[in-house]
Amino acid sequence: MRKIADWGNYPVIEADVSGFDTADQLRRELEPPGEVIAFGNGRSYGDASLQKRMLLTRRFNKFLSFNEETGELCCQAGVLLSEILDVFVPRGWFLPVTPGTKQITIGGAIAADVHGKNHHVDGSFGQHVVSMDVMRNEGSIITCSPTENADFFKITVGGMGLSGIILSAAFKLRRIETAYIREETRRASNLDEIMDSFEASTDWTYSVAWIDCLAKGDAMGRSIMTRGEHATAGDLVNQARQSAPLKLKKGLKLDVPITLPNFALNPLSMKAFNVLYYNKTRPGTHQRVVDYNGFFYPLDAIDNWNRIYGKRGFTQYQFVIPKEAGRDGMRAILKRITDSGLGSFLAVLKLFGEQESFMSFPMAGYTLALDFPISVKAMELFKVLDAMVADYGGRLYLAKDSRMNAEMFEKTYPNADEFRQAIAMLNEGETKFASLQSKRIGITS
Ligand SMILES: Cc1cc2nc3c(=O)[nH]c(=O)nc-3n(C[C@H](O)[C@H](O)[C@H](O)COP(=O)(O)OP(=O)(O)OC[C@H]3O[C@@H](n4cnc5c(N)ncnc54)[C@H](O)[C@@H]3O)c2cc1C
Questions:
Q1: How far away, in angstroms, is 79 Cα from ligand 1 center?
Q2: Which atom of ligand 1 is found nearest the CA of 305?
Q3: 42 alpha carbon – ligand 1 mean position (Å)
Q4: What is the model's pLDDT at position 417?
Q5: Which residue of 13, 25, 49, 295 sits with most ligand 1 atoms within 8 Å of its CB, as the best mutation to test the pocket?
Q6: How close is the Cα of 20 to the center of ligand 1, in Å?
Q7: What is the distance between the alpha carbons of residues 269 and 362, in angstroms, rounded to a whole number?
Q8: 43 alpha carbon to ligand 1 midpoint, in Å?
Q9: Mutation pick for ligand 1 pocket among 21, 50, 95, 114 (CB with most ligand atoms within 8 Å)
Q10: pLDDT digits (tens, 9 = 90+) for 173-191
Q11: Sign of dihedral through CA atoms 76, 77, 83, 87?
Q12: Tens digits of residue pLDDT in 123-169
């Protein structure tokens, strides 16, 4: 038994964990009766990959094939995005979609159907998956794709590990000329301004905004908008970069070596951080060329940054509301959050494009993600926010969730019932794949 948690360190559980190096070993792990869940790299925030018996996929991490012409990569599901970048960026290829950390596995990217700053242009990760092999409860392997065993594919992408264990996947990388991003940042002084800015940014490949969720009144929603494009060789002015456009120098790694005491992060320290961050960007538009790590993964530069929230842990409240409800809805929800004074210094706003997958989180609309240290007050606030999100026709992201109830899930995921029935049918009576989350939100009993 081992103490284990996902990224928010809430909940922390005692679990029986084992890994596997081959499909045969995994088959043997699945033989004993009882429930299991796949655990990738534990970068979901709550309890989506937690269960009293967990199968760790990280050792199953080989590259299987790569087509230099089409960019199609096939690898085992325990490969990290960072491992793909290390090998393929120097060869001129990048991920089709990446979340805000590269420390996640391919299995986790597909099971949560992750999104990135380019969702409005390129959709979610699952939309780039050409095919995958998944091991079912009795050890058989199903190959599925948008055209082969399409129904099974549909419930596995965004299916949070409940249809089986993804063994390997093939997906297309995108060509790049350099390892750099041409970045533009600008300040928006309130919510209307940042929403105008998003709506005028649809021709940029990457866009995202950081919101000061503690600013109130006329300044509510003040933000820094960041947009980006992969830099071409011509965009590089620095000679060292020009001579090796696809190579990056090793960056400095910082670490939070211990879990900080709960009082280290309080409303005052958060407010100070937000004010400093906002004022760091001067008024006007600023352009620069940055390496891809700085643009996509600023948080990965600090190992174990989740420890700053202390032993109580934290959760990320990420919701999306449809674009039509956008301005009014976001204003009302943000006001509720700023009034509570509980919001943290990491609030990320993004405008998603259209998406109609079976269980995936994104829909055309605005998504906001905020970290909250775990507290009774925060839990009370979430109940109020849940009701507002549901009323505006939105939903919460399962990869970030640790506390939504079954009623909220049912109300906000239109295919919840069909998904539950499909998973029950696949389990043929005895539930095999289940997580603490799937039980809490009523997908598995
Ligand atoms: C700093 C940070 C930033 C983030 N930014 C974003 C973002 O911008 N966009 C976004 O979409 N997400 C984001 N995330 C969330 C993260 O991308 C997802 O939670 C992702 O699923 C984590 O992958 P993992 O490999 O760590 O899997 P885990 O967290 O271990 O598991 C996640 C889910 O995938 C399932 N799973 C894992 N491997 C397999 C497998 N082989 N077969 C079947 N099921 C499997 C698990 O059972 C679980 O349900 C962020 C997380 C962090 C910590």
A1: 13
A2: 1
A3: 7
A4: 97
A5: 49
A6: 19
A7: 32
A8: 5
A9: 114
A10: 999 999 999 999 999 999 9
A11: positive
A12: 999 999 999 999 999 999 999 999 999 999 999 999 999 999 999 99
Expressed in angstroms and rounded, the spacing between residue 102 Cα and the centre of ligand 1 is 10
- Model pLDDT, residue 301: 86
**Using CA atoms, how far apart are residues 426 and 424, in angstroms rounded to an integer?**
5
Q: Return the domain boundaries, the chain.
A: 180-402
pTM exceeds 0.70 for this model: yes
- For residue 18, which amino acid is it? S
Residue 408 has pLDDT above 70, yes or no: yes
- CB-ligand 1 contact for 316 (6 Å cutoff): no
| pLDDT at residue 352 greater than cutoff 70 | yes
What average pLDDT does range 375-401 have in this prediction?
A: 97
Q: Which residues of 334-344 are buried (b: 16+ CB within 10 A; e: fewer)?
A: beebbebebbb
Torsional class of 113: left (φ above 0), alpha (ψ -120 to 50), beta (otherwise): left
Candidate CATH numbers 1.20.81.30, 3.30.70.2520, 3.40.50.720, 3.40.50.2300; the one for domain 180-402: 3.30.70.2520
What pLDDT score does 310 carry? 86
Q: Is 367 in the pocket of ligand 1 (CB under 6 A)?
A: no
